[in-house]
Design a protein that fits this description.
The protein is of the alpha/beta class. 43% of the residues lie in helices and 18% in strands. The chain has a single domain, classed as Alpha-Beta Barrel (TIM Barrel). β1, α2 and β2 form a beta-alpha-beta unit. The termini are close together.
């Protein structure tokens, strides 16, 4: 299982529901970097609008790899804000830009114009760029806009603070299958609080599980023409079935799955590790 889970979890501690303050997010990330658990990417996800807050908490000996996220917050052009943030990170010896994420909604939404705007803002950054369509159903237009572009992937939003931010299993299956067919990697964000698909008793929202998504990626990579197995993987709530099928994946299937699914952002960096240990070690 080590290759399947290695470098899977980005640190999204700044985001809800955990929503750590900058000091707490940096302190936790510092501890995680020292521990260096193999499931962690050791990337801290930081919106452009909060970069200054994070920098204010750094010590001279800190070395942080950032997933820098473009956002619509703030005055002026989002591309200019992203470009300025990248320059700030490049000039700070304590920081590096490991990857860039950009919601196309912040750049107008239409992939035909938003994608070139993001790519212009990130030119020369030397980091992969993951683009989030305004809705998962927009993956086709996004893939068409990035066709043949190296270093660009997609981003799947799996949840949020409102019910409409949670894609259905069918929508998520379509997204994953489309990326597999196009040979475009993707990462995921939001809502993946636990390993297995479940209903949150407090909110009533049904969340996707990160093990469901891993198995879906493996099946999509193995047979990109058929979305039915991918949908079944996303729909299951049976932890034993998921663990058994993941444990049965061959080495090449694991590599293909992780080439397709690069990582996902988790506001907790402890829960994914503990749940994977409990569920997969028993498989």
């Amino acid at each position: 299982m080590s290759a399947l889970l290695a470098g899977l979890v980005d640190d999204a501690g700044l985001f809800p529901p955990t929503a750590l303050p900058p000091a707490g997010a940096v302190a936790r990330h510092r501890r995680d970097r020292a521990a260096a658990h193999p499931m962690h990417t050791l990337r801290l996800l930081v919106p452009v609008a909060r970069l200054a807050e994070i920098r204010a908490e750094l010590r001279p000996d800190d070395r942080l790899a950032l997933g820098l996220i473009a956002d619509a917050a703030g005055p002026g052009d989002p591309g200019e804000r992203l470009r300025a943030a990248l320059a700030t990170v490049a000039a700070d010896d304590r920081l590096e830009t490991a990857l860039i994420e950009a919601p196309l909604a912040a750049f107008g939404g239409d992939p035909a114009t938003a994608v070139p705007a993001v790519l212009a803002a990130t030119a020369g950054a030397g980091a992969p760029v993951f683009l989030e369509p305004a809705a998962p159903s927009g993956i086709g237009a996004l893939l068409a806009a990035v066709r043949g572009t190296l270093g660009v992937g997609a981003k799947l939003r799996c949840g949020g603070v409102r019910a409409e931010l949670f894609p259905s299993p069918a929508e998520a299956a379509h997204f994953v299958t489309a990326c597999a067919r196009a040979g475009v990697p993707f990462k995921a964000t939001a809502g993946l609080h636990h390993a297995v698909r479940h209903r949150d008793p407090d909110t009533g929202f049904t969340h996707h599980g990160y093990l469901n998504l891993l198995l879906a990626a493996a099946l999509a990579a193995a047979g990109p023409g058929d979305p039915a197995p991918v949908l079944r993987a996303l729909e299951t709530t049976d932890a034993e079935t998921l663990a058994r099928e993941l444990a049965a994946l061959s080495g090449p299937a694991v590599a293909a799955a992780r080439t397709l699914l690069v990582s996902y952002g988790s506001c907790s960096t402890r829960t994914p590790v503990s749940e994977a240990r409990t569920l997969l070690d028993a498989a």
